């Protein structure tokens, strides 16, 4: 393809971010839903607090009903999936119809899950299709820069969520190194001094997660 | 054929999977919906297709001659074949295009000609679409999926392959390209035909753009990449209407056009497919004159018939329309997409009186046509039973180094048993169109 404009790089980046948001938040949702069965019925409130969304759900039951499926909730998983679709559909010529189809299939899965008798279990099919999407990105998009920008978005979102969800330092470091690799290969302009600062922060045994998140917001230059 | 019917649901699911949708605005809200696909194809025998091909090539060649003439010497008007009121006062005639010759002198590169077949098997042209006709992508992708779902049907029937449309389109873009890349200019994600824009970009290798990343400098178009590097644009397959194409020349408040693109085109530095100003030739009023222009430019009789049409502009025709009002369908020449179509018999006495008053005060605004009893095609209804519905055929004619007729087309059908309106925006569905190789 060879030519990537600011607009298109933006769509590719956010396609990666939203798709990863669906993937990681869904995995955490499934983990939280399990905790709510018998260990900690209110763990959904901690989940909301960690990922920085208002607890508008009021009860664990409401959370289970709305967080994955509510199209009117701007923080819901289905809303993130719609945003991924919005970015994918305008990039059909770059990512291909086959790759795009997996975002559509994941959307169908989440809608089917809502109608299913076992709503939570049926959400696993969404993860299947998200993983298939990433497989397609790797396998079917020949242009390295396109792949790297999408994966940069994925890496950035994963790192941001790991920092929010207080994943282990090892997880965070791995996610950071991965993101940094894609950033360097993406061809996008970035602030080298921010990378230097984060490198230093992560070399300490303890670091302020919010500060890293703030720095990441200004890493890529438009 | 039973295999196709059996697998109908699978095909519709696969079409959804690949995002084969069209957008529609309802109550001010954008909705994407699936374009319902019916598995029973329209089948056209090879001999019949050769007849249609001959007529369609002739028609499109004449329309291209007409456009070249009216924006050039205007001989057809000077010779009194078409009254000037029908040319220069038509909404589609664009004064800025006067005197501009497009690359290779081609105006309509992609023409969508709507036909119907009457119950006596005669084909009639209903309208010519020479601006931004859409729809070829749907049968193209449906065929790909049907071949997978029922391969035996295709090995048992010799059906001409229709999946070459994108190659043909690329050939046309390359032929008129003035040097540089090909781009497809779309109004964006919320346009009704966005699926088609993005699908053609993928299949032709053209760059899909909404124009934001294109600039015109020194009367030349450039596509600007992330790092500010410029790449020249040689051909723009634009899927936006003339009036929005360039705010410096046409509708000045247009946000979706490219400033100064028209100047680049005027100077011959970029090809626009289709050329701006083509609306002067696909006006429903001009339609009446197409057989005359075929005779005038090509010295031939029209192979394909128009539906019997009357122009209230002529007193004799007005009298006929008034005395046969209930038997006719009246069309507003400025409308498209199935809108502005009134069946005389459907009006109440009061509405009929109002309409006739409007017709008399603005005779140039309307044409009247005999209602053709379309040949019904079988579709599968919601219970899976065959039932007959009105259907038309949009044939696609591509003009590059030669004029070629795509051996397929978009067959649209009405899902409403009482309706002749087949447009997707009004709930219609589509079928594949098979042209047999023998």
Please give the count of helices of chain B: 14
Shape of chain A: globular
Report the biggest beta sheet of chain A as strand number plus sense, adding barrel if it closes. none
The radius of gyration computed from the alpha-carbon positions of chain B, rounded to a whole number of angstroms, is: 22 Å
Please report which band the strand proportion of chain A falls in: under 5%, 5-15%, 15-25%, 25-35%, 35-45% or over 45%: under 5%
The proportion of residues forming helix of chain A, as a percent range, comes to over 70%
Note down, in words, how this protein is organized.
The complex is a heterodimer of chains A (222) and B (438). By secondary structure, chain A is mainly α. Chain A has one domain (6-217). Chain A has helices spanning 6-38, 43-51, 60-66, 77-89, 92-95, 97-115, 119-122, 124-140, 144-164, 169-186, 192-203, 209-217. In chain A, helix 1 (6-38) runs antiparallel to helix 8. Chain A is globular, with a radius of gyration of 18 Å. The mean pLDDT of chain A is 94. By secondary structure, chain B is of the alpha+beta class. Helix content of chain B is 30%, strand content 26%. Chain B contains 14 helices and 21 strands. In chain B, helix 3 (46-70) packs across helix 12. Chain B starts with a helix and ends with a strand. The A-B interface holds A 1, 3-9, 86, 89-90, 92-93, 96-97, 100-101, 104-105, 108, 187-188 and B 16-19, 181, 188-189, 194, 198-199, 201-202, 206-210, 212-213, 223-227, 231.
């Amino acid at each position: 393809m060879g030519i990537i404009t600011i607009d298109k790089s933006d769509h590719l980046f956010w396609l990666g971010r939203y798709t990863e948001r669906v993937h990681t938040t869904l995995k955490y949702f499934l983990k939280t839903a399990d905790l709510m069965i018998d260990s900690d019925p209110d763990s959904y409130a901690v989940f909301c607090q960690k990922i920085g969304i208002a607890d508008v759900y009021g009860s664990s039951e409401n959370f289970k009903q709305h967080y994955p499926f509510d199209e009117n909730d701007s923080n819901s998983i289905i809303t993130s999936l719609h945003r991924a679709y919005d970015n994918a559909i305008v990039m059909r010529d770059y990512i291909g119809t086959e790759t795009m189809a997996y975002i559509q299939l994941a959307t169908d899965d989440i809608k089917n899950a809502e109608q299913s008798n076992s709503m939570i279990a049926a959400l696993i099919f969404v993860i299947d299709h998200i993983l298939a999407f990433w497989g397609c990105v790797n396998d079917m998009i020949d242009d390295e820069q396109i792949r790297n920008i999408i994966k940069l978005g994925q890496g950035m979102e994963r790192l941001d969520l790991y920092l929010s969800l207080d994943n282990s330092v090892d997880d965070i470091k791995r996610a950071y190194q991965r993101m940094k690799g894609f950033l360097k290969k993406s061809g996008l302009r970035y602030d080298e001094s921010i990378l230097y600062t984060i490198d230093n922060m992560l070399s300490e045994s303890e670091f302020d997660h919010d500060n890293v998140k703030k720095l990441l917001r200004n890493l890529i230059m438009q | 054929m039973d295999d196709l019917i059996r697998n109908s649901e699978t095909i519709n699911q696969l079409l959804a999977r690949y995002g084969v949708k069209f957008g529609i605005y309802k109550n001010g809200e954008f909705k994407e919906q699936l374009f319902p696909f019916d598995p029973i194809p329209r089948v056209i025998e090879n001999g019949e297709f050769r007849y249609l091909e001959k007529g369609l090539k002739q028609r499109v060649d004449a329309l291209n001659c007409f456009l070249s003439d009216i924006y050039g010497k205007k001989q057809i008007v000077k010779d009194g074949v078409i009254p000037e009121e029908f040319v220069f006062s038509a909404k589609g005639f664009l004064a800025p295009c006067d005197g501009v010759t497009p690359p290779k002198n081609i105006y309509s590169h992609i023409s969508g000609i709507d036909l119907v077949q009457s119950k006596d098997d005669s084909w009639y042209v209903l309208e010519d679409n020479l601006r931004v006709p859409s729809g070829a992508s749907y049968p193209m992708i449906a065929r790909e999926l049907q071949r997978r779902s029922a391969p035996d049907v295709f090995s048992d029937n010799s059906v001409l392959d229709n999946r070459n449309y994108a190659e043909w389109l690329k050939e046309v873009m390359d032929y008129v390209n003035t040097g540089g890349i090909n781009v497809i200019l779309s109004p964006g994600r919320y346009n009704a035909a966005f699926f088609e824009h993005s699908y053609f970009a993928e299949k032709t290798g053209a760059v899909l753009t909404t124009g934001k990343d294109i600039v015109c400098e020194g009367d030349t178009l450039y596509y600007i990449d992330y790092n500010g590097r410029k790449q020249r644009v040689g051909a723009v397959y634009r899927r936006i209407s003339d009036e929005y194409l360039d705010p410096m020349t046409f509708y000045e408040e247009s946000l979706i056009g490219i400033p100064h693109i028209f100047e680049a085109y005027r100077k011959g530095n970029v090809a626009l497919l289709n050329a701006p100003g083509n609306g002067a030739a696909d006006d429903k009023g001009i339609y009446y004159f197409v057989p005359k222009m075929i005779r005038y430019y090509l010295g031939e009789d029209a192979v394909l018939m128009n539906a019997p049409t009357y122009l209230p502009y002529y007193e004799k025709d007005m009298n006929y329309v008034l005395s046969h009002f209930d038997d006719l369908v009246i069309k507003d020449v400025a409308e498209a997409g199935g809108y502005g179509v009134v069946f005389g018999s459907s009006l109440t006495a009061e509405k009929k009186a109002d309409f006739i008053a409007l017709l008399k005060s603005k005779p140039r605004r309307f044409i009247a046509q005999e209602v053709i009893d379309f040949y019904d095609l079988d579709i599968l209804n919601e219970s899976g039973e065959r039932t007959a519905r009105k259907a038309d055929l949009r044939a696609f004619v591509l003009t590059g180094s030669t004029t070629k007729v795509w051996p397929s087309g978009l067959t649209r059908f009405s899902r409403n048993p009482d309706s002749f309106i087949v447009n997707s925006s009004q709930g219609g569905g589509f079928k594949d169109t098979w042209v047999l190789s023998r």
